[in-house]
Amino acid sequence: MDPYLSNPKRVLVVDDDESMLDLCARVLGADGFEVALARNGEEALARLADGKFGAIFTDLTMPGMDGMEVLKYVKHNHPSVCVNIVTGAGSIEGAVECMRLGACDFIAKPFSVGELAAMAFRCLGHRARKLEVERLKRDISAYEELDRMKSEFVSNVSHELRTPLFSMGGALELLRENVPELSSGTALKLCDVLSHNLSRLNSIVSNVLNFSRIEKGSFRPSFRSVDLAALARKALEDLQPLFARSGICVGPVSVFSAPASIEADPDQLEQVLINLLGNAIKFTPRGGEAGITISGTSDGAMLCVWDTGRGIPPEYHLKIFDRFYQVDGSMTRDAGGSGIGLSIVKAIVEMHGGRVWVESSPAKGARMNVFLPAKRSALAD
Ligand SMILES: Nc1ncnc2c1ncn2[C@@H]1O[C@H](COP(=O)(O)OP(=O)(O)OP(=O)(O)O)[C@@H](O)[C@H]1O
Ligand SMILES: [Mg+2]
Question: Taking a C-beta distance cutoff of 8 angstroms, is the pair 380, 269 a contact?
Answer without folding.
Answer: no
